[in-house]
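As the next step, I selected for study one protein, both as residues and as discrete backbone shape codes, as given directly below:
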Amino acid sequence: MVGSVDSVASKLYSNGSVQNSNGAEDRLDELRRHLGKAEGDLLKIVGVGAGAWGCVFAAMLQDSYGHLREKVQIRIWRRPGRAVDRVTAEHLFEVINSRENVLRRLIRRCAYLKYVEARLGDRTLYADEILRDGFCLNMIDTPLCPLKVVTNLQEAVWDADIVINGLPSTETREVFEEISRYWKERITFPIIISLSKGIEAALETVPHIVTPTQMISRATRVPMENILYLGGPNIASEIYNKEYANARICGYEKWRKPLARFLRQPHFIVWDNSDLVTHEVMGGLKNVYAIGAGMVAALTNESATSKSVYFAHCTSEMIFITHLLAEEPEKLAGPLLADTYVTLLKGRNAWYGQMLAKGDLSLDMGDSIKGKGMIQGVSAVGAFYQLLSQSSLNVLHPEEKKPVAPVELCPILQTLYKILITREFPSQAILQALRDETMNDPRDRIEIAQSQAFYRPSLLGQP
């Protein structure tokens, strides 16, 4: 690990975060050498998308390396024009006044008055405006360091060396298709790190999964060796508040190892792995079952027994699905369960399931929720259901001894699809599925996956 808690030279920033300067310049210089940057030539890093994780990722880089202004530039792009409503402005004002360090910073920057005026309803704040002051619209309660915000996409990306994809999977293709127009004259390809967790199903010819990194490569023609995925069991706000966390950066060795060293901090340990697409797909899979977990929690008044029953069934379905997707699925068990666990505890997809079951949200409100951002599990439910319904993927049913689509052995996934996508069932149907007397022991599903030749490399676009 780079450095230690006791030996790190620290610098207190105005947002209250602690800057670790020990070794930062060496790590930056190492990455610059890998990228072939000449002395005096800035390393330009830009985040695309300003959701909670995208903003925290940019802020962590700014805290760690922003003081090295002659060597690196860190910026973030978000769309302009998103107004902050009155209720959010009032809450933001309370957050500011409850944090003395934030209050003093805004006063020093002559930025406090606009928040007073917004609290009184005398002016409108905008999301890009408050982000410059360190406030992410999807994470108001966790002030960040001030960020350099760009609202013109072409200006943000045209000469970037490293692009961080913080967009939802549902928006990734569209935005990177636009970005590709600005990269037509580039001589070299940038490095792209995708934080996005979600998938699409492609059903024509050979049914397969399309991940955000694949969307980016197809949209921009950037080779996959220059595109990486970073994910792990973490909550964005907790990571920024220095809770100990870990993540994996996955992709080709040429870039993943130097980037792992560059991103690693004493409280944020980054490992590296070559299996990009499978880890990316697993990041989308856990969001599917997190929604159902939230529903069960709300409908049973947080019954520990009911939640454990659900956990047993949903994990057996996830293990079943990983046997279709991975040649060595046992290697994914730890990372997948850890990511699932933290999402069930505090993730937005579990929260969304709770709000639906309580009636505080409705499906008609869509899957982009104020203060939370995009609920990516909804589209992932549809994608996994459609993909696993294909007859070309049929497996042998253990009792009926006949070929069936894999989805027929995933009753939780089927129920979530009928609640969220076709809307045939209310949220209460998730409990009925759990209490179905004909449902098999979760262990049986795992044994089915382990006893048959399940692996389908074509699902991940492999021969």
